[in-house]
What we know:
Blueprint: E1 6-8, E2 11-13, E3 20-24, H1 33-46, E4 50-55, H2 58-61, H3 84-91, H4 98-107, E5 111-116, H5 119-127, E6 133-135, H6 143-150, E7 156-159, H7 165-177, E8 183-188, H8 203-211, E9 214-219, H9 225-232, E10 237-241, H10 259-276, E11 296-299, E12 314-317, H11 328-331, E13 335-336, E14 351-352
Parallel strand pairs: 3-4, 3-10, 4-5, 6-7, 7-8, 8-9, 9-10
Antiparallel strand pairs: 1-2, 11-12, 13-14
Protein name: Pseudaminic acid synthase
InterPro entries: AFP_Neu5c_C_sf, Aldolase_TIM, PseI-like, PseI/NeuA/B-like_N, Pseudaminic_synth_PseI, SAF, SAF_AFP_Neu5Ac, SAF_PseI/NeuA/NeuB
Keywords: Transferase
Amino acid sequence: MTNNDVTIAGRLIGTAFEPFVIAEMSGNHNQSLDRALAIVDAAADAGAHAIKLQTYTADTMTLDVEGKGFTIDADDSLWKGRKLHDLYAEAHTPWDWHQAIFDRATQQGLIAFSSPFDDTAVDLLESLNTPAYKIASFEMTHLPLVRKVASTGKPLIISTGMATLGEIEQTVLTARQAGAKEIVLLKCTSTYPASPENTNLRTIPHLREAMDVQVGLSDHTMGVGASVAAVAFGATVIEKHFTLSRADGGVDSTFSLEPNELRQLVVETKRAWQAIGGVSYGPTGAQVDAIQYRRSIYLAENVDKGCRIDDRHIRVIRPGHGLAPKHFEELIGTTATRDLTKGEPAQWGMFAQLHPASSH
């Protein structure tokens, strides 16, 4: 373990451990508790390590009014023309579902936790004994909420989204001063979906060094490529939105993974982590036996003792049990010290009058 490793419900998070994969349910339950529970089951079956909810109501998020800013007007938004209050009413996870979802997760061996969006949400999650908290990217500058969450002393995962490095520093400092000892920052692009070109994974090692915390990726791109690449840059946590089927619709379905894709994400991020290793040259333990398939120098004909060696007598072939190919020219013009047999690997003791430079 290192000083900034994090433990959530007994699961260690750090570069020495396989990536911690979080399936984000968000609003993909489509206001059906049965579907929400089925999402938990599918996430567990796919091999995810955690299921994450979002804890809010439309009224804790915004006001039910008309006016600029209360209706989404961005042309490239999935939710263009929707009132914020209506959108949050559709997407929220009813608070009386939380216990059932947490219980199902426990039955399935999943860690369940949530993103609270106000103090009352934190109080609810505390009553459920949540093992960790997530601060959503749009809330990371909501320092009163950060203080409330950090004061629980539980591990805190924070998406950075649009935050500047200065804002991230302020949030991390606020969390630490309020009692947070275990913090993970997630590189996050706050567009839905996000494009690979706008993901900037090189930020991950820079953020880890700057803040001295574990860093992961909250990935809103399509597919699993960005997440796999993030692990190569040192990401220790991967969060992806998850649904049973994009065809079923829902507020986040467009950029959510389906079960087979989540399973692929778990497998491929683990493979990426396993492949990182360290700086290594020469044969590793698993490669030692393969050295025999290199080329080396062998006798290509029977040779009598005292015969002068020329390029008819020796060849560079596979396997690799003879002298290295670089010695081929040195052997030309030497004499055989004994009778040599076709197919013998060339060794120094077989030849006399070697060139001085070939001292052995």
